[in-house]
From TrEMBL, chain A:
Main location class: membrane
Keyword Membrane found: yes
Species of origin: Endobacterium cereale
An example Gene Ontology biological process: transmembrane transport
Compartments where found: Cell inner membrane; Cell membrane
UniProt membrane topology term: Multi-pass membrane protein
Recorded GO CC terms: plasma membrane
Protein name in UniProt: ABC transporter permease subunit
Family: Belongs to the binding-protein-dependent transport system permease family.
Pfam families cross-referenced by the UniProt entry: BPD_transp_1
Superkingdom, taxonomy of origin: Bacteria
Entry keyword annotation includes Glycosyltransferase: no
PROSITE patterns according to UniProt: ABC_TM1
Residues in ABC transmembrane type-1 domain copies: 65-268, 355-549
UniProtKB/TrEMBL annotation, chain B:
Pfam families tied to this protein: SBP_bac_6 (PF13343)
GO terms of molecular function: metal ion binding; thiamine binding; thiamine pyrophosphate binding
SUPFAM superfamilies for this protein: Periplasmic binding protein-like II
Provenance organism: Endobacterium cereale
UniProt: Fe cation binding residues: 213
Keywords: Iron, Metal-binding, Signal
Name of the protein in question: Extracellular solute-binding protein
Gene Ontology, cellular component aspect: outer membrane-bounded periplasmic space
């Protein structure tokens, strides 16, 4: 889109710049410095670049880079295949029980990927729940690239589903109707009008899935290693957590990941910039949805199958494990017990404190990233600020940084000797880590929404005497609110369960939910870990739903 | 809307600041089990009045944190799951020399000038009696056809103790043992807990060389597992506790070591099914004197770590 935006938004520009420097640039710069100066952790700049030649001779770097791209593409494509038919049906037609399906498909967001993967393993492995119930196992499929793609796509496809159905709703069927009036067939108007106009939502969300897949740790670590399929993230983690620790090597591997994600980002930009996607140019539109007619049943069956695989089955595995007195007892009535849940309510090992810590952090992170993300996206899309390309790049960088690398960057940056005040060893370091890792979510969602808002609305407000800030608050913010709120809920869900960075930077004496769960697994108390996971999933699903209900009443979010 | 967001955000952050900045007297980084270090910290505080802040993770994660913090370290006492850490840190000159008066009954092998064991774990065969397989007695048994595709190995690259077991068995029996395991479909499966989980559910029958205390406490909770220590010998993993030389609370840190080795501290160790470091403290599990311990020359074993791991990976990655 050619930017013919409104200049003079300088307070917002400053806010975006300052926020992005603190949240993204500082840890990133320290990772690059660590890549150059291997002794950085000890405060020394000695022997720069001495470790590089050995790394590039290593063929594993390239093989793992290739594996990472392959996995990312497979997951993005499979997630889109799951999501597109559902999103189209949801956005254009009156799907029976639509709200129920939305809630059910929200749940996979709330299931931490490492928990879902463990659930799948316990279901599909030999003598797993599937075999205990129906007599066969699918362990050969699970521990393969196909199984890994399947599990990861089921975990991430709601990203595409929600983004795409919102975008298509915003496009509405009105433009397609215009096409129909001019004589196009339903299919033709869909292919030529609705689909092209939905491209920003689809591409942005597939990019998010791709990025999430290439930086996901839990699933490749649990499934990929058995399949002999190594990716960059597992190697980075090995270099960081395998003594002797190789931080310089890890930062070089991370920079390769950054390049991959930047490439994906450039592809997205190229697609978005080819033409204008402005669809909101004047008064709000009526969104008329059509009845499904004879397709009701097939569409319902499709929703049911996907919901079963993405939501019901993982929840079943988690709950059965949590309710088992012993794992070796299996699915038997006499093995059923509530002891794991009573341990949690009895605050065993600090369970309740971990819950409240994570919820506070999740709420703070979603508020901060929502504010910073909306402002940054606005500055990038709607102003002519010279450095906006740099800001745009900074907002996408964290996509490429695995949690473990962000954590190391934050420690290097904020534990540097001589800082007068530092967030290190306080909960703020976790907040910074979550904000850095999750900032791309609000940015991507609001960018896609902003691309669809014509500049004339804001210009009209400015002509009528509103300041840049008032115009943003009164015109832009309400229009992007549905996308922004969706992305903030996503931030909340992911921040409350983030594992890898939390393990490394959690201040001493502080547990988050994921750290609690991980410690239970580490000590062989799988049931207690799964019980905590189940409680978390329920809470993180209910909390945003209540919030949405409240906001709807207040008219903040569109139906 | 922006204003209310900002206001809410600031309020939340302010409340966290108030909650999270209690000052700690000493900071302990400890490898698992988490319940042990938490009880030990609570007991120490009750005894001495000094507060303890605990960071608990795997040895690897703790090392990463210490490495990243090296310019401005905060840890006073470190408890690792691998004796190699003590050797390595002593070599770097990072440790304080201290011999606790309570360390008198700790065998010489479990203490140096700068480190002393908190407790000891041993590696064994962890076997699920419900797996329909005969009870194994020796390491070689797991290469037999009865255990085809039913054995997990912890990854020696991720667990120091597993690495020492591989090195010791390779020295005693050669690589053929591991070639036999691979030919029999044994799988290398992550760190200790990852290797154990499939055995609990029955997907696998046994773990070749698992850390014993997790399975022993699982058995006490009613899980169907047994820990078998082969008569030909196994390796033990003493868990060294060290005081870091940059600690500004060395007296409190020394008192922590004293408490760890006191009757009370050693009982906490025994309660988590680890072997107490002190030979005069009882435990409800097999002790060092009940096991045949294979000794390794750690200097030469660790100097060949890369080669040993490469050889091991060569065997298990082949044909995958």
């Amino acid at each position: 889109m050619k930017s013919n935006g409104i200049s003079g938004a300088s307070p917002m520009t400053w806010l975006a710049t300052a926020g992005l420097i603190v949240v993204v640039a500082v840890p990133f710069v320290f990772i690059i410095l660590q890549g150059i100066f291997p002794q950085l952790g000890r405060g020394s700049l000695a022997a720069p670049l001495t470790h590089l030649p050995g790394l590039f001779d290593d063929t594993r770097l390239w093989r793992m880079g290739g594996n990472t791209v392959l996995l990312g593409l497979s997951v993005a494509i499979l997630a889109a295949l799951f999501a597109i038919p559902l999103a189209l049906a949801r956005a254009l037609f009156k799907v029976p029980f639509a709200l129920f399906w939305d809630v059910a498909l929200l749940v996979p967001f709330m299931i931490p990927p490492y928990i879902a993967t463990l659930g799948w393993i316990m279901t599909l492995q030999p003598r797993g729940y599937l075999q205990q119930l129906v007599g066969f196992n699918l362990s050969g499929f699970l521990f393969s690239l196909g199984g890994m793609t399947f599990v990861m796509a089921l975990n991430t496809f709601p990203l595409v589903y929600f983004a795409l159905s919102r975008t298509i709703e915003a496009v509405g069927s009105r433009y397609a109707d215009v096409g129909r009036v001019f004589g196009a067939s339903p299919w033709k108007s869909f292919w030529r009008i609705t689909l092209p106009l939905s491209t920003p939502g689809l591409v942005a969300s597939m990019l998010l899935v791709f990025s999430a897949a290439i930086e996901e740790y839990g699933t490749p670590a649990a499934l990929g290693r058995r399949a002999g399929f190594d990716v960059l993230v597992t190697e980075i983690d090995l270099r960081v957590s395998d003594w002797p620790v190789d931080l310089p090597g890890a930062s070089i591997f991370s920079l390769l990941l950054v390049l991959l994600s930047l490439a994906a980002f450039l592809v997205q930009r190229w697609i978005l910039n080819r033409r204008s996607y402005v669809t909101t140019g004047s008064k709000p539109q009526h969104k008329e949805k059509r009845p499904l007619g004879k397709f009701s049943l097939p569409v319902l069956v499709l929703f049911a199958i996907v919901t079963f695989l993405a939501t019901v089955l993982p929840l079943f595995a988690i709950l059965s494990t949590a309710l088992s007195k012993t794992i070796s007892g299996g699915l038997a009535w006499n093995n059923l017990g509530l002891s794991n849940f009573s341990s949690i309510s009895g605050n065993s090992a600090g369970a309740l404190k971990a819950l409240s810590n994570s919820f506070l952090l999740g709420i703070s992170a979603s508020l901060l990233t929502g504010l910073l993300g909306a402002v940054s996206a606005y500055v990038v899309v709607k102003t002519r600020f010279r450095g906006r390309n740099i800001l745009d790049t900074m907002t996408v960088l964290p996509n490429a940084l695995p949690g473990v690398v962000v954590a190391v960057g934050l420690i290097l940056a904020w534990n540097f000797p001589g800082l007068p005040i530092t967030p290190y060893n306080t909960p703020f370091i976790l907040l910074l880590a979550y904000c850095c890792i999750l900032l791309p979510q609000p940015v991507r969602y609001t960018t896609a929404a902003l691309h669809q808002i014509g500049d004339n609305l804001e210009a009209a407000a400015r002509v009528c005497g509103a300041s840049a800030f008032v115009a943003f608050r009164r015109i832009i913010l309400p229009l992007i609110a549905p996308s922004l709120v969706t992305s903030m809920l996503l931030v909340f869900a992911v921040a409350t369960r983030e594992l890898v960075a939390s393990l490394l930077v959690a201040p001493v004496g502080m547990q988050t939910i994921s750290v609690f769960i991980w410690r239970q697994f580490e000590q062989g108390s799988i049931g207690l870990g799964m019980a905590m996971a189940f409680v978390t999933i329920i809470l993180t699903t209910l909390l945003p739903l209540c919030l949405i209900a409240l906001l709807r009443r207040g008219g903040m979010v569109a139906e | 809307m922006t204003k209310s967001f900002l206001g809410a955000g600031l309020a939340v952050i302010a409340s966290m600041f108030a909650a999270g900045t209690a000052h700690a007297d000493i900071t302990v980084y400890s490898a698992g089990p988490g319940s042990l270090i938490e009880k030990m910290a609570a007991g120490y505080t009750a005894k001495t009045g000094h507060k303890v802040e605990v960071f608990q993770a795997t040895t690897g994660k703790i090392m990463a944190r210490i490495e990243a913090e090296a310019a401005n370290p905060v840890v006073d006492v470190l408890i690792s799951a691998s004796w190699d850490t003590a050797t390595d840190f002593a070599g770097r000159g990072w440790l304080v020399s201290y011999t606790s008066p309570n360390a008198e009954k700790v065998p010489a092998a479990l203490k140096t000038e700068t480190a002393v064991a908190q407790g000891v774990s041993a590696l064994g065969i962890v076997w699920n009696p419900n797996s329909g397989t005969p009870k194994p007695a020796e390491w070689e048994d797991l290469a037999k056809p009865e255990y085809k595709d039913l054995v997990n190995l912890p990854d020696p690259a991720q667990s120091g103790a597993s690495f020492e077991l591989v090195a010791a068995l390779q020295a005693a029996k050669g690589w053929d043992l591991f070639k036999g395991l691979h030919a029999n479909g044994a799988a290398v499966a992550g760190a200790n807990a990852e290797a154990l989980n499939p055995v609990l559910q029955g997907a696998k029958a046994a773990v070749f060389g698992a850390v014993d205390y997790i399975s022993l406490s699982g058995k006490a909770k009613g899980e169907s597992v047994e820990v078998i220590f082969p008569a030909s010998g196994t390796v033990v993993a003493p868990r060294p506790a060290m005081i870091l030389k940059w600690s500004k609370q060395q007296d409190e840190a020394k008192q922590f070591i004293d408490y760890m080795l006191s009757d009370e501290g050693q009982k906490l160790v025994a309660d988590t099914y680890l072997m107490p470091a002190r030979s005069d403290v009882k435990a409800n599990r097999p002790l060092m004197s009940d096991l045949k311990v294979m000794t390794i020359d750690s200097a030469s074993v660790y100097s060949k770590r890369k080669e040993t791991l490469a050889e091991f990976n060569g065997i298990f990655k082949a044909g995958q």
